Amino acid sequence: MFDSVFGKKPPQKGGPMGWEPRSPLTQNRNQQSAPSYSKAFRWRLPDGRTDHPQTVEIVGSFTRWQKVPLMRDGALDAWHITLHNIPAHKTHHYMLLVDGKPTQDKNCDGMAIAHGPEEEQYTIQTDRGPRVFMLFAQTK
Q1: Within 53-135, where are the H helices?
Q2: pLDDT in tens, 63-102
Q3: Cβ(77)–Cβ(32) under 8 Å?
Q4: 131: which strand partners?
Q5: 106 contact partners, CB below 8 Å, separation of at least 6
Q6: Is 88 within 8 Å of 36 (Cβ atoms)?
Q7: Residue 5 has pLDDT above 50, yes or no
Q8: pLDDT tens readout for residues 18-52
Q9: What are the boundaries of each domain within the chain?
């Protein structure tokens, strides 16, 4: 019953694991029908690295800065997750964490200056100073 109220979608069989943020009980139906979309995130070991990390996670404004684990796909030797119900028509900030440490995401839409303590703890150092990754959330 609660899954249908909060719009939870079961993971697709054979596909990447899905995750959706939990909606507060006070959220009304108009907010639930706001435009949103799903996005697949993937991370692979950098060239030359052979030791597999214990954890690969994503954290960002679309997860309410809660760490969400990526699942390892042994056949592709990659970690991945599909996140659902990402609010559309806005820019989100996020970071990939490998064994708890911020790491590069070569598939990000850009980089941004971190705003606030939640974001500042997940920055990666660049030539222009500490940054987080950007995701331009658009619906298709």
Answers
A1: 116-120
A2: 999 999 999 998 888 999 999 999 999 999 999 999 999 9
A3: no
A4: 124
A5: none
A6: yes
A7: no
A8: 555 554 433 444 455 789 989 999 999 888 888 89
A9: 2-137
Counting every residue, how long is the chain?
140
Beta-strand (E) ranges in 1-140?
Answer: 18-19, 36-44, 56-60, 68-69, 71-73, 78-87, 90-98, 101-103, 110-112, 124-126, 129-137
Q: Which residues contact 133 (CB under 8 A, 6 or more apart)?
A: 60, 93, 94, 95, 96, 105, 108, 109, 110, 111, 112
Longest pairwise C-alpha distance within the chain: 50
Residue 137 · residue 92 · CB < 8 Å: yes
User: Which residue stretches of the chain are H helix?
Assistant: 2-5, 29-32, 116-120
**Second CATH level (architecture) for the domain 2-137:** Sandwich (2.60)
* CA distances, 133 to each of 46, 85, 104, 123 (Å): 18, 19, 9, 8
Give this prediction's pTM: 0.74
